[in-house]
Design a protein that fits this description.
The chain has about 150 residues and is α+β, with helices and mostly antiparallel strands. It has a domain at about 55-153: Subtilisin Inhibitor, CATH 3.30.350.10. The chain has 4 helices and 4 strands, in the order ααββαββα. Strand 3 (about 120-125) and strand 4 form a beta hairpin. The relative contact order is 0.14. Keywords: Disulfide bond, Protease inhibitor, Secreted, Serine protease inhibitor, Signal. Belongs to the protease inhibitor I16 (SSI) family. This is SSI family serine proteinase inhibitor. Homodimer.
Length: about 150
Amino acid sequence: MPNLRTRTALVGLAAAGTAALAAASPVQAAGPDGETQKIHEAQGILEAQEGGGPAARMVLEWEYGDGSGGGRVTLRCHPSGGSHPDRAEACESLTEAGGRFERLPDTGEPCTMEYRPVVVSAEGTWFKRPVDYTETFGNLCRAKVGTDRVFDF
């Protein structure tokens, strides 16, 4: 019969193994809707790979509120592509947000208090789901850091 330390170690190893298996599971969900979304995204990746095209295609734009300047890029994900300068990172951020721009985290980086409104927009598809996103930020820095740098172009 194993001693107390050995039994404690075995219980710890079993718990760690269970946690590792759960973390390695291809479907991690925060509820029924999250599970369905992950399944659909996984199916979309497979279909895109079989069809030779990306699972997500979008046009991203930003423009100053007064119309005096802006930028426009294309972004494809799974696999990543397009004219976005950091397409792999942008796709990773969007994948973590389930393709929902409003769920992109703020990086927490500091910005000036300058007020020069910027309108950002995204149009296209994310795993066959239409994307039509528009949001206004107080300045270009806030637009970049408030969208996990997806609009940093």
